[in-house]
Amino acid sequence: MPTFGHIFYGLSLLIPILYFTKNEDGFNYKVAFIFLANNIFGPDIVHLLFIIPTHSIIGFAILAIPLSLVYSYSSRFSLISSEKKFFPLKFVDEGIREVNWKNSYCITVAGGISHFFIDQFYHFEKKMYLWPGISIHHDEMLAWGGAAYHTVTPLIIIGEIIVVATILLSLFYFRKGSKETFIVLVLVTLISIALMIFISTDVYGGEREFGVIVHCVVYVLIPLFLLMYAARDVRDNPNETPEEQKINRKTLLNIVAIISILIALFFMVYSYFAIRYADIIAFRFGENPTQSTSEIATSVVIIGYILLIVSIMLLIGSIGLFFKINICRYIVIAICCELLIFGFPVAIALFLCEKDIKVLFGKESED
After folding, report:
1. Is 46 helix (H, G, I), strand (E, B) or coil?
2. Euclidean distance between the first and final Cα of the chain, in Å?
């Protein structure tokens, strides 16, 4: 589930990067937005509704293919101050996608993998979910180190030589760059793994080295490299070509309105079943130290009614789009922004903020 912990972790990663790049060309804030959104919601967007393979590292990498297209589209918009009293902020359509689909995919996957870091270590199950039915428990990773733990043997001298040499040589390979540093990392890792397998983990004092390697590759190296690769490409190869409209905006507005209606109907049905079968849902959740099943059922019913009301409002607003009623546009924008928790609906909100769409509703294109 999305929690404040995901927000805190995502911002904790991004703030030092933003600080470091402040006086340079800068770290594209739209790249940061895509990463943060997926670090928080990414793998949960469909998992909150259905139990399907996307709540796993490989599963989300597949889901990220269409999802990253939504976030690529989002990169043509900015959120700026508004002159209107009741709407202090507004989305502005800049007409250019700053983050292409490829880079958006890299950032989306990076954010999603970072999401799983919090899930593994701050959920009681402590599992790295690779695919439904395929997971690695944290304790299992620790066991890869064998029986030896905090041992003192002459073999530790070999490990210390490798560690000291790696540190001192960093004055050389850091100067060469990331490629050479990565090569050193691979070589030292392969040598260390070979020593621990064919001699003993006593080489490094019986520490849990194998688990550390797996965690660092999955949760640090891969997501940060994907993030920085995309950020660098966005910086070095800026897109300055306005997006070409391949579909007439009047036609596309009607299509979007239909999709929005279908989403509203889906959530109306979903909320009905939540209300109707709250006891069954509560039973599946099971009791916890602070809630009984009856209390969970009551909460499900309340949430169900709230979702039902919001869905009805979305349905009304979506129908109003056909008649170019501007207040309906605002209603759909507001609700679909809140539905960012489900990923895809936010594209509807942004679409309704396009300059050409505003014109259809009688708004000035520069508004």
Report:
1. helix
2. 37
Nearest-angstrom CA–CA distance, 240 and 152? 61
Give the number of other CB atoms < 10 A from CB of residue 244: 5
Which residue type occupies 178? S
Residues paired with 81 in a beta bridge? 89
Residue 331 to residue 324: CA distance in whole angstroms: 12
* CA distances, 269 to each of 266, 307, 332, 342 (Å): 5, 10, 18, 16
Q: Where are the domains of the chain?
A: 4-141+221-236, 146-207, 249-360
DSSP 234-247: HHHS---SPPP--S
Alpha helices in 237-292 (DSSP H): 249-276, 278-285
Decide if 44 contacts 111 (C-beta within 8 A).
no
Amino acid making up residue 288: N
Secondary structure of residue 89 in the 3-state scheme? strand
Kind and range of the H or E run holding 92: strand 89-93
Q: Which residues contact 196 (CB under 8 A, 6 or more apart)?
A: 203, 204, 209, 210
Q: Please tell me the distance from the alpha carbon of residue 325 to that of residue 146, in angstroms, as a whole number.
A: 68
Taking alpha carbons only, the member of 106, 94, 115 closest to residue 42 is 115
Give the single-character DSSP code of 19. Answer: H
Residues near 13 by beta carbon (within 8 Å), at least 6 away in sequence: 35, 39, 114, 224
What's the average pLDDT block by block, 10 residues per block, for the chain (367 residues)? 83 94 83 96 80 86 96 96 81 95 98 94 87 90 83 93 97 96 97 95 91 95 97 94 89 97 97 94 82 92 96 98 96 96 95 95 62
Coil, strand or helix at 80: strand
